[in-house]
Amino acid sequence: MGENSMATRKQKMKxxxxxxxxxxxxxxxxxxxxxxLIVIAFFCIIAIFAPLIAPYExxxxxxxxxxxxxxGAYGIKIAEDLCKPAWYKYLPFISRGQxxxxxxxxxxxxxxxxxxxxxxxxxxxxxxxxxTSSTLLLSHRVASIxxxxxxxxxxxxxxxxxSDWTIPRSGEIDRLREIQLKxxxxxxxxxxxxxxxxxxxxENIKVVEDHKFTSEExxxxxxxxxxxxDPANPKINYNTEDGYVTKKGxxxxxxxxxxxxxxxxxxxxxxxxPFEYPYYEPPKSFFIHTSIKVEGASTVxxxxxxxxxxxxxxxxxxxxxxxxxxxxxxxxxxxxxxSDADIVARNIKARPPQDRIFASPGNYTFALQVIIDPKVVxxxxxxxxxxxxxxxxxxxxxxxxxxxxxxxIPFPRDLFSLLVYGSRVSLFVGVLTAIFSTVIxxxxxxxxxxxxxxxxEIIMRFADLLLVLPTLPLFIVLVVSLQTVTxxxxxxxxxxxxxxxxxxxxxxxxxxxxxxxxxxxxxxxAKAAGAGKFHIINRHILxxxxxxxxxxxxxxxxxxxxxxxxLSWLGLGDPLLPSWGKIxxxxxxxxxxxxxxxxxxxxxxxxxxxxxxxxxxxxxLVGYALDEILNPRLRERR
Length: 638
Prior knowledge:
The protein is α+β, with helices and mostly antiparallel strands. The chain folds into three domains: about 30-50 and about 415-630, MetI-like fold (Orthogonal Bundle), CATH 1.10.3720.10; about 95-200, no CATH class; about 205-395, Sandwich (Jelly Rolls). About 40% of the residues lie in helices and about 25% in strands. It has helices at about 1-30, 30-50, 50-55, 215-220, 345-350, 355, 415-450, 455-465, 470-485, 490-500, 505-515, 520-530, 535-570, 580-590, 590-595, 600-630, and strands at about 60-65, 75, 95-110, 120-125, 135-140, 145-150, 155-160, 165, 175-180, 190-200, 205, 225, 235-240, 255-260, 265-275, 285-295, 300-310, 315-325, 330-335, 360-370, 385-395. The strands form five sheets. Strands 11, 13, 14, 16, 19 and 21 form a six-stranded antiparallel sheet that branches. Helix 7 (about 415-450) packs parallel to helix 11 and helix 14 runs antiparallel to helix 16. The longest helix has about 35 residues, at about 415-450. The two termini are about 40 Å apart. Mean pLDDT is about 85; it is low at about 170-175 and about 340-350.
């Protein structure tokens, strides 16, 4: 008996394999089906291996989490916001280097009676709404002014001579961004300023390769010097025991400065890290972090600066000078320099500060200076020890990654990583919704079609009621209601909502097939043999409607994918999930399309749109191929 059962199972397995081979041979002949299957397989591979393919986390990506004690448990941002793709630099039509720019300004005269009819002329750059600046505020730094032209209402124009305009802070002409006109010109005069500026695509520069000093080789990359006349005092060494440990197992390497009090003059110790800045345009910002511990003195001064080398001279730019108190533990200092609100703006007298520092391509040095005053030495033996660790400098450019970055706060997101992880959400929601709604529709369609009577009426009238409701507005109302009640909408909430309103059409199709099948002679024969209702449904009717199940599964996925993307695009999706619809929502809420135009940041929105359309089309192509194979009316005769 057992041998017969085993033989029967083997025969069934062989028959199933034979049927699948026959189906696969038919499916391979469908070009549409194969294209769709390849595309689906491609997106499935991306979804499965997303952590390996995507270079960064999709939500709040960070560099060095926990490695910058001044930031707590957080790391630093991976890039600036609204960066363009790194491959832009290979496009021949993208301007780089010295470029001539013409900007147009519209003027308006304002009179203040309360100030004795004080008159001032204000300007707005073309594209701006309000005139608020009393100077011609340029959008780029200036290498040189070509000409300034005034165009009057009567159509005449004149070139304004250099004697009629001035440059605020004229000593900084290489960082110029504004022009002050000396006289008052007629109301509504248009000014055209033509100037040369450096335009470039800048990549991030990590000045310090190993900010944790994990090896002596890392220490040797720094140039150490002092103003002391004694070459042996102070000593600057690599220390392997007293570094700051950010997490268990970290290397304890650091820079150690040992000073022995020998005179009354302050001693300056400078450590420098040279680097090259090869770009014509200044970076968008830069970040600096330092951990410092002081022993044997009540306080020391820590200076942070950049040094620009021009021919035979060096130009230092002091960023900050901070007193460091001796507390027996490390003090952690960090700063992100990107606006004139920083102290660096006052020290360097430039807005923004990086404009003055990185005026042109060249060789630069990032430096730290430790100033030890013998007057504040507290150690009885006159020994002062200063430890430096976690010294890092990151310069942020305007290009990043394969698709650039969005404007996420405080951590801009890598758009390529968002796109890769978004495939997971779309496939998960689409496939699960299709499976759940198909199973519900199959069950209700079988029951309704075979049972008939009052059961059929109740199920079909309920399905009709749901079919006449406008789905997307209803989804929006339900999701908003969930947000109001629970304060949060998860991906599972969306799957449940899509499932509850996605089974009706399939249930009606199954019912119509069952109504036809139950009148067939083999069903009558089964009834005559004493088979029960559920036995007949399971063994005789269900196998005959399964072809429709496969087709419906394939064709139901696209609508679920598009609906989920639509809800996320409207801001009604799961805010913690990186979906393609959320990419579109972030782009819409940023107002970039209004302020800068859609074409300038096409890489933010178009890849997600293309991915949604491609994946949905792939499932539709597979559905068409299945329909051609499994539908008797469309089946190809070969």
